[in-house]
Structure to design on (301 residues):
């Protein structure tokens, strides 16, 4: 390449760098411009934010899928299945303190629910049925499924909002394995517990939306215990390693959890969250069962 060619190449690189520095969109502007959300998810997200922010100092001081105009916190909620978004923020939910924004791709919510068959129900049947015969499953009605979506979005966004309130560093509620000890062993794990604690104080299990939130929380804990006791099996099917009963189900044998990483496993997080709510509100029998179930947990060797 001659000198003119080298100079032209260098100028092009410089021009590209200047364009990137001065004109390139940040993730928030890019996702707000290209991201989409269907009507069902729009309504769920609106109702969820109103619920988790109620009675907080930010109930009227947040932006939702708009550029902030002086608001303290911004929620950007989108569905990466509806548009060709290229961003590290797809398929996850997280709090980014530098910009005071919470991003959430609802694709993650639907994947979480589908992986646990929480988008399905058992087909009703008549007569006696062998206990080990698999149930037929069908998709939940849209209105019922949207209630499951809202519950999970409440947990996820409430958790990320808890990071914001506590002044934590960046967090990430993603579909990758979330592993940790029962007791916190690092600052990052302590942050995760502290962020979840906002939900325990915000939702009163005896009043309004808190009743449904804790009913769903207990149900999800039962699903996670089922997945641990009988891996590879739908949580809607009978598992002989589970002692079924009212409230929280107990495993018939020891279940193991991992110890690597900075985020507690979902099962451990749910137990901690219910424990905090029990200490604040006295969940009675549910609190007792929640305290008892940890006797079946062991650190994976």
């Amino acid at each position: 390449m001659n000198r003119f060619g080298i100079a032209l190449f260098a100028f092009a690189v410089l021009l590209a760098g200047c364009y990137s520095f001065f004109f390139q969109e940040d993730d928030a502007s890019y996702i707000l411009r290209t991201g989409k959300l269907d009507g069902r998810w729009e309504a769920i997200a609106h109702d969820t934010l109103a619920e988790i922010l109620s009675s907080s100092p930010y109930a009227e001081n947040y932006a939702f899928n708009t550029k902030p105009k002086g608001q303290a916190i911004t929620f950007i909620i989108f569905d990466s299945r509806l548009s060709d978004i290229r961003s590290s923020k797809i398929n996850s939910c997280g709090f980014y303190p530098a910009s005071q924004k919470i991003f959430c791709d609802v694709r993650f919510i639907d994947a979480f629910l589908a992986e646990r068959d929480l988008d399905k129900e058992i087909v009703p049947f008549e007569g006696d049925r062998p206990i080990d015969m698999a149930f037929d499953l069908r998709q939940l009605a849209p209105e019922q499924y949207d209630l499951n979506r809202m519950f999970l979005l409440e947990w996820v966004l409430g958790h990320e909002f808890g990071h914001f309130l506590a002044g934590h560093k960046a967090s990430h509620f993603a579909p990758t394995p979330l592993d940790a000890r029962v007791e916190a062993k690092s600052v990052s794990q302590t942050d995760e517990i502290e962020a979840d604690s906002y939900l325990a104080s915000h939702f009163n299990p005896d009043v309004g939306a808190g009743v449904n939130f804790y009913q769903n929380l207990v149900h999800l804990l039962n699903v996670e215990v089922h997945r641990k006791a009988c891996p590879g099996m739908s949580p809607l099917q009978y598992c002989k390693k589970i002692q079924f009963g009212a409230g929280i189900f107990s495993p018939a044998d020891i279940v193991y959890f991992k110890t690597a990483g900075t985020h507690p496993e979902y099962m451990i997080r749910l137990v901690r969250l219910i424990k905090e709510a029990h200490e604040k509100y006295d969940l009675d029998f549910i609190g007792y069962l929640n305290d008892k179930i940890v006797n079946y947990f062991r650190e994976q060797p």
